[in-house]
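Example record

One chain of 339 residues, shown exactly as stored in the release files.
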Amino acid sequence: MKLAGYLVWLYLGLFFFLHVKKKEIKTIHLSGHAQGTTWNITYYHIDSLVSSKEIDSIFDSIDSSLSIYKPYSLISRFNLSQRGIAINKHLKNVVNTSLQISRQTKGLSDITVAPLVEAWGFGVKESKDIPEQQEIKKILNCVGYDKIRLTNDSLIKLKPCVKIDVNGVAQGYTVDVIADYLWAKGITNFIVEVGGELRVKGKKQPGSKPFKIGIESPSGDDFSAPPMQKILVIDSGAITTSGNYRKFHESKGKKYSHIIDPHTGRSVDNEMISATVYAKNATTADAYDNALMLMGMERALRYIERRPHMAAFLIYKKKDGTISDTASSRFRKLIQQTQ
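Predicted structure tokens for this chain:
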């Protein structure tokens, strides 16, 4: 009887050992191409709960709503309409957030900037032609977040010439949608990155080590091959970056950034090189980084210090032509001090 008892306990111990062994946390990597860029996901779980096919489906759903490059998308249909259209949750969420941030930034973040983006050659049809001031003045009559209305499930334009472009928010929003999807699946430790915009939740497993995020910083006057400059340590939140070295074209020896000022109608031309924003979610961070670029270094730093749930790292060119950087007080707390 004793021997039988020992055998039972031995069997149970072996079963328990094998069961625990089988349930070890795994590191799962997913990656692909979408929205004209790359995406990467890393999550930790005992099972593979989410596949690349599921993530691709999310991208397809978002692009069919927000992509100006898809002629069948809701945003393309809105831009071609005379008065507006019925919209779905993706476009509604992005427009609602964009309008809130437009009011908070006094119109520096404005999705109705689309006609100006097109005029400067950064829309669907690329061009290096620089618009004349008279053309810009005419287009400005069609720009302004006060020229659209979000009512229930409809987006209304007050002028037929109004168009919207949510490219400045879409990738951040996509990151949030994917992050929320992972969370709903029971995944509590992950990092989601789309085109450099990312969101983190939890810690690296096993070992519960915090995620480390590198911030790029341009080197030299041509802003090519930005090296890693700062390392951030975070366990929750989102990081996005806007930079005038990322997308620009040259005309007659001058560089013109893709970031357009909705007030003046002109490409941003100040000391700013890039603005990296930390916020609770990527949609918010993505919507603010362009606005900070337009504010200029000193104003941007004052602005972000007044917002307790946000932080920023700014890279700018000094009057003597050298490149420098500064960070808000809350952002400094995220930077790893010893490397």
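Notes: The domain at 29-332 is CATH 3.10.520.10 (T-fold).
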